[in-house]
Amino acid sequence: MKTSQHFNDMSNLVASQIMAHTDVGSRASSIEKWLAVADICRCLNNYNGVLEITSALNRSAIYRLKKTWAKVCKQTKALMDRLQKVVSSEGRFKNLRETLKNCNPPCVPYLGMYLTDLAFIEEGTPNFTEEGLVNFSKMRMISHIIREIRQFQQAPYRIEHQPKVTQFLLDKTLIMDEDTLYELSLNIEPRVPPG
């Protein structure tokens, strides 16, 4: 629950930081900076971070800003496409699973992928066999997922702690809610009536 909340907070923070810019050029620059951060996350094997940022950019409040996106450079748009391919949920996160299989820890996988797997197993597989025995096949599937998550927790990152960065990332006063973000988006670029 805490991990999911943190994911949502980070995604909201990114969206809020972009929407805090009043002029189109600054907003485009902010998108470019956040995508550079997402690429650094990818280089550090922090796929959760990549997803937090790309999901923020795909929110309707930001995605709909055509004038802002028009100012984002081609290389950045290409980078966004590459990052989104890696973390896409397509084919049960096929590309991300492949990437994780070939990645050396330390690594922060996208936990939502594992939560989906666990929910799928829980919903689709009974706890007991028809004979009333414990369904060990189900328990093995759950154990395999938990083992994979734990494997990524074995190697710590060797990154110097930056208190200012931590303070910024955890500052809830910087986060706007979904409705505020969308309202702001409509003020920045009003809907164009179909003509």
TrEMBL record:
Keyword Zinc listed: no
Domain Ras-GEF: 1-191
InterPro entries, alphabetized: Ras-like_GEF, Ras_G-nucl-exch_fac_CS, Ras_GEF_dom_sf, RASGEF_cat_dom, RASGEF_cat_dom_sf
Keywords noted in UniProt: Guanine-nucleotide releasing factor
Domain of life: Eukaryota
Signal peptide: none
Keyword tRNA processing: no
Entry-linked PROSITE patterns: RASGEF, RASGEF_CAT
Protein name: Ras-specific guanine nucleotide-releasing factor 2
Organism: Xenotaenia resolanae
Gene: RASGRF2_4
